């Protein structure tokens, strides 16, 4: 254990827990959309999944042992995933020229079916999830120089 206080007394533990919960809900949401709803992920969605899915395990292990160093390891996954999410949103909104679209074959990032509840684009949900995780992990990693 790398902390001298009980996990419930440390606000960094709560930040780590909320970041884990956001990653867990995002993972369940991605699996639901792909496996239950049958929406095939595009290339950028796969890259974001590669960054999000391991966060559930990395942050969960950090919570189990109240090891705040896991926040730094989580940031190493969340920041690149967040950058892909930013690019994906720019692509969805049409700010990226068509020549820079990595989704050649298979599902397209710009299809209208990429919305939840009819109006929330999936790339935006991903960006929000990564942003929440990054902010909370930045806070949770404060003071972990070991």
UniProtKB/TrEMBL annotation:
InterPro entries assigned to the protein according to its UniProt record, in alphabetical order: DiS_bond_form_DsbB/BdbC, Disulphide_bond_form_BdbC, DsbB-like_sf
Transmembrane intervals: 12-34, 46-66, 73-94, 114-140
Keywords: Chaperone, Disulfide bond, Electron transport, Membrane, Oxidoreductase, Redox-active center, Transmembrane, Transmembrane helix, Transport
Topology of this chain in the membrane: Multi-pass membrane protein
Subcellular location: Membrane
Keyword Acyltransferase attributed: no
UniProt xrefs under PANTHER family: DISULFIDE FORMATION PROTEIN-RELATED (PTHR43469), SPBETA PROPHAGE-DERIVED DISULFIDE BOND FORMATION PROTEIN B (PTHR43469:SF1)
Protein family per UniProt: Belongs to the DsbB family. BdbC subfamily.
Protein name listed in UniProt: Disulfide bond formation protein B
């Amino acid at each position: 254990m790398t902390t001298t206080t009980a996990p419930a007394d440390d606000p960094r533990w709560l930040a780590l827990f909320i970041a884990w919960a956001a990653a867990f809900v995002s993972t369940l949401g991605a699996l639901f959309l792909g496996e239950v709803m049958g929406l095939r992920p595009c290339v950028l969605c796969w890259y974001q999944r590669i960054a999000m899915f391991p966060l559930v395990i990395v942050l969960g292990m950090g919570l189990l042992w109240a090891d705040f160093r896991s926040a730094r390891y989580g940031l190493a996954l969340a920041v690149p995933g967040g950058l892909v999410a930013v690019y994906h949103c720019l692509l969805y909104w049409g700010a990226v020229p068509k020549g820079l679209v990595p989704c050649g074959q298979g599902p397209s990032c710009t299809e209208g079916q990429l919305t939840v509840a009819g109006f929330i684009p999936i790339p935006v949900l991903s960006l929000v999830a990564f942003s929440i995780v990054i902010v909370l992990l930045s806070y949770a990693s404060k003071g972990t120089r070991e």
